[in-house]
Amino acid sequence: MNVLKIKDDSRSTKHDTNNIKTYSERGILLFIAAIQIYPLLWLIMFSLKSNQEIFGKNPLALPKKLLWENYARALFDGNIARYFINSIIVTVVAVIITGILAAMASYAIARMEWKLSQAMLVVFLLGIMVPMHSTLLPLFIFLKKAHLYNTYAALILPYIGFSLPMAIFILVGFFGTLPKELEESACLDGANIYQVFASIMLPLTKPALATISIFTYLACWNELMFATTFVSEQEFKTLTVGIMGMVGMYATRWGELGAGLVIATVPTVLIYISMSKQVQKSFTTGALKG
Amino acid sequence: MKNLWGKILTCVISGAIAISSVGCAGTKDVAQTDAKPGTEVAAEDTKEEVKDEAKPEEKVKLNVWNLWTTDADANAKSFSIVLEQYKKEHPNVEIVVDATENEAYKTKLKTAMAANEGPDVFFSWGAGFAQPFVDAGQILPLDEYLTPEQKANLLPSQTSNLTYNDKLYALPFVSWVGILYCNKEMFEQNNLKVPDTYEELLAAVKGFNAKSIVPISVGAKDGWPLMFFQNVLALRTAGADGSNAALEKKTAFNQPEFIQSAQLLGDLVKEKAFDEASLAFTQDEAKMAFLNGEVPMHYIGSWFAGEVQDEKLSLVKDKVVAKNFPSLDGTKGNKDEFLGGAIDCFMVNNNTPNKEVAVEFAAYVAEHMAKESFMLGAGLPAWKIDTTGLTIDPLVQQMVDLANTATGFVLAWDTKLSGEAAEKHKTLVQEVFAGTKTPQQFVDEMDALK
Amino acid sequence: MNKVFSDKKAIFLFVFPAFLVFFMIIILPIFFSAYYSTLDWNGIGKATFIGIQNYINLFVNNTDGFVMSIKNSFIVALLSVFVQVPLALILALVIAKGIKWEGLFRTVYFIPVIISTTVIGQLWMKIYQPKYGMLNNILDIVGLDFLKHNWLATPETALGSAFFVIIWQYIGYHMLLLYSGIKAIPTTIYEAAEVDGANNFQKATRITIPLILPMLKVCVTFALVGSLKTFDLIYVLTKGGPIHATEVPTTLMFSTIFLQNKYGYGSSMSIFIILECLVFTIFLQKVFKAETITY
């Protein structure tokens, strides 16, 4: 930067235009960032308000009094800790298994040669098209008959099922952008398909795997409908169910609900930020390799 | 190799079709075999407390479902209290409670009942909501299981919505009545009179509008709060008997009285009785406007009293007076008829292996909750209760006094009607509100409902 | 090489586990739904076989406004493909080229996606509130108060208001997908182009976009199919109202099955939605197939 400044003194007009462009670009980006982060701020604000303030004259204002008791009630009433752990178990297992199964299936579809590969892709894509509500009753019957009702599997299996299509689709698209030279040279060196997959392709897919892990995580962590219907016992309920439980039949303490939602969102934000760094690291390594 | 794949795919697809047909047939068959409830139980002697099915010391487990997830609901508190009492008195019965939020509860319950996997005892709504369950034989009729004392304590007027084909299928705990809550203070500050008649209501509406105060708040987005207005206007124009007859399809809706009920609603809209944007407000938002002291009138069920008098939730405690909806002259209805009834209830699954214990539990809870919920302002008791020595909140007392003068009840129409009819009715009322359908169209489409 | 890549056993091993789970969770229920769609059934009691009568009612008799709900979902789909994805693409291009605070922007832009739809819905309901909401207040301040509306309460404006929120929430999602695609392109290609004198715009259009076409295809497909299936936000914001003005096929299906107790009829709606998405996906596959380039 400094070098440029000295050099461009004689061409200050062009430099100024560049600066204006950069600053205005940055300004717009910052403005958009503010809009994007506002919901999170609003959520935190309303978790500290009373019902009157939330629905009153100025729902978008700062809370008059910080009602930390909303958090106390959200945390200590009921089994929030248990629900939290359940959500973690269900989500982590679903993310890992989805990643593995999807990577394997996508590699086969994208890179291996067999006549039905495109058809198989379309079959998996069917999953994206199915509205979750229409599978509620059939899945319920299936889970009951398989004695999986009220277990972790009752949620993990459906979550994997619904996350696979998207994961596979993204990975197939991603494999499509990778050059074939690496696999070709590995084959010439005598590697079998499993070695090619595990040692070469898998590490290259880190950015995509990180991305689909984030998406799968989001789908599972915030999921409500299956979690409510497929689990009845306290020991298996997830966090979203517990939080929605704060909505009463005739009365809801919205501030407390907000506190619960903040508690549920915190891990998501933390995971996303830390995964972001991972994603960033793997992006740069991936780029340099080419 | 193509053959292998082809074979696999064929097997898979035929397997899928096979499983689907078995699965569905299974559901249908089970539903039909359940349709013989009365035969095995009719012979039992109902005076016995515990039957041979479960010896007194034997452990029995009951799955109980309800929608009281948070003690923000007075009924939730009341249920916990009664549950504890029951557990102390019946140490051999293990009660596993599953509470689910209101909207999701309906989906969850319907799904479980559709798969024939419902719980032993559960909260339900009578009349239209439970009709499909009763028709499919999934609900246990209770007459043979209740003791004579229980039958005597149950107030007779409170079981009409829970009786199907002359059999009692559920037990109520509280009933509700539609109440026009009026913020006295706001009326006094603006020199207006709390209305007793429809004309006085219009006068109050004009008066508040002149001061730029929205007279009535209603959560029209949710459908049912707006529907209450048309229902109660029909109550005034056609009377309780007239409304019930039409709802039970004994007479048509295409009569001057019902047309008038829709017309009056339209008139109220023209007089700006409601906020123009009411269709965007949920009931939560609308009731907050009243609890925050911004809007002087709110017409809703008697359960609201608990919130009105709770300082943590309301800014208008002790400023509110409870009234029946204003009277209308020269019509078939009279001023002492109320919207309301006992619709919240407990039902017992016909498939439960422990019928005696389940009914005993349901009856115990229903009867005791009648008192506890009433004390917490959640509703009016559906059983006879002893109120000697108890202090009753003044607002609740007003409602009790009003209810005691009642000469007739009509349920909220969306609970009386079932499924599709209930949903379409609510939409029709919204259309009258928005002015996109005329009163004549309203009654014609009501008649077309299945 | 060919032998390694056509090893049938390996292909089977790779694909079968995913396929098995997928079959149980997705394929089987679709068969169930298809079967239910031929019934007149309330979900609990007896079911009567009525063949394709449900489908006839959906389209020919149009008793429930299903056709209009499809039209609404098409509007969302068009908006998402031609507004949301391009915007996401521009953002991804700008951020990926290596500006200051790249990591921050990438993280922050994704935040609306993380937040549960209940919160987003509640927030926007408050923004759209006619009296106290931010939108009308801002219009007042800048002197455009004739533009004020009862945003979610009037059928005319409810559609646009709800759709705006849907598009807004998921821009970050598509941006992230495209961003990861862009980042996978080796910088050597750009360096070579710069030597040839290419400017930013040329780099973007001649190099980046063609190379991320597979990713673009993914984004467009998700955007399209997601719009046809959109449910959560509409349900929270308007429940399909006011008076069915913002109904989309899924909200109609939900109320038909779970509120109106018409399981068979609702199932026919879901089968239609699935078929509709299938048709579009195959169509998109063909459109993009012609364009895939590798290097």
Q: Any key phrases for this structure?
A:
A: mainly alpha, MetI-like fold, 2 domains, 75% helix, flat, disordered C terminus, C: 295 residues, mainly alpha, 15 helices, 1% strand
Tell me about this structure.
The complex is a heterotrimer of chains A (290), B (450) and C (295). With 290 residues, chain A is mostly helical. Chain A has two domains: 2-55; 78-245, Orthogonal Bundle (MetI-like fold). Chain A has helices spanning 2-7, 12-47, 51-55, 69-76, 80-111, 117-129, 136-145, 153-176, 181-188, 193-204, 206-221, 225-229, 239-244, 254-289. In chain A, helix 4 crosses helix 14 and helix 6 (117-129) crosses helix 8. The model of chain A is unreliable at 1-11 and 284-290 (pLDDT under 50). In chain B, strands 7, 8, 9, 10, 12 and 13 form a six-stranded mixed β-sheet that branches. Chain B has a five-stranded mixed β-sheet with strand order 2-1-3-11-6, sandwiched between helices. In chain B, strands 4-5 form a two-stranded antiparallel sheet. The longest helix of chain B is centred in the N-terminal third of the chain and has 32 residues, at 2-33. The radius of gyration of chain B is 24 Å and the shape is globular. The relative contact order of chain B is 0.17. Chain C is mainly alpha-helical. Chain C has a single domain, classed as MetI-like (MetI-like fold, Orthogonal Bundle). Chain C has a two-stranded antiparallel ribbon with strand order 1-2. The radius of gyration of chain C is 23 Å and the shape is flat. The model of chain C has no long low-confidence stretch (mean pLDDT 83). The chains are: A mainly alpha (290), B alpha+beta (450), C mainly alpha (295). Chains in contact: A-B, A-C, B-C. At the A-C interface, helix 2, helix 5, helix 6, helix 7 and helix 8 of A face helix 1, helix 2, helix 4, helix 5 and helix 6 of C.
Offer a concise description of the structure.
Chain B is α+β, with helices and mostly antiparallel strands.
Topology:
The complex is a heterotrimer of chains A (290), B (450) and C (295).
Chain A: H1 2-7, H2 12-47, H3 51-55, H4 69-76, H5 80-111, H6 117-129, H7 136-145, H8 153-176, H9 181-188, H10 193-204, H11 206-221, H12 225-229, H13 239-244, H14 254-289
Chain B: H1 2-33, H2 37-41, E1 60-66, H3 74-89, E2 93-99, H4 102-114, E3 121-125, H5 127-135, H6 148-153, E4 163-164, E5 167-168, E6 170-172, E7 174-183, H7 184-189, H8 198-210, H9 224-247, H10 256-270, H11 283-291, E8 297-301, H12 304-308, E9 320-323, E10 337-341, E11 344-348, H13 355-375, E12 380-381, H14 394-404, E13 408-410, H15 413-416, H16 419-434, H17 439-448
Parallel strand pairs in B: 1-2, 1-3, 10-13
Antiparallel strand pairs in B: 3-11, 4-5, 6-11, 7-8, 7-9, 7-10, 7-12
Chain C: H1 2-5, H2 8-36, E1 39-40, E2 48-49, H3 53-61, H4 66-96, H5 102-109, H6 111-114, H7 117-128, H8 134-141, H9 155-183, H10 187-195, H11 200-211, H12 213-228, H13 232-237, H14 249-259, H15 263-289
Antiparallel strand pairs in C: 1-2
Helix pairs in contact in C: 2-15, 4-9, 4-12, 9-12, 12-15, 14-15
